[in-house]
Amino acid sequence: MARIIYVEDDPLMGEVVQEILTQAGHLIGIVPHGTLAFETIVFKKPELILLDQKLPGMQGMEILRALRRLPDLYLTPIIMLTARAGDDSRDDALVAGANDYLVKPFDPAELVRRVGLVLEQTAFTRQPRGAK
């Protein structure tokens, strides 16, 4: 189980993703505004962030870049979950520090699989020093 923040301004999409990931055993909160999401992420320090690209306030790429500059959140896994399907958008997000990139609409099983993989891949780097 992971604590996840999903930054998404479409309420229906937020509900769909929340339901899928809750059924997979995760706790998920939805924040519909980019600037508020950034502040919430900094305060709550989730174990995973799902980030839409087009948002009111800060855009998804702005949030991604800002989070990668913060020592406390530098290693927090981020999956871009967006309608932008082009290779350029995907490449830009991965270069900026996204751990994965999933295009909407998506297969629910694929979302669960990708979340699990990213959490598994980043589990070691997120452990506090001295943890065993």
Automatic annotation (TrEMBL):
The modification 4-aspartylphosphate is found at D52. Signal peptide: none annotated. It comes from the Bacteria. It holds the Pfam family Response_reg. Transmembrane segments: none annotated. GO terms for biological process: phosphorelay signal transduction system. SMART domains: REC (SM00448). Residues 3-119 form the Response regulatory domain. GO terms for molecular function: DNA binding. PROSITE patterns: RESPONSE_REGULATORY. PANTHER family: RESPONSE REGULATORY DOMAIN-CONTAINING PROTEIN, STRESS RESPONSE REGULATOR PROTEIN 1. This is DNA-binding response OmpR family regulator.
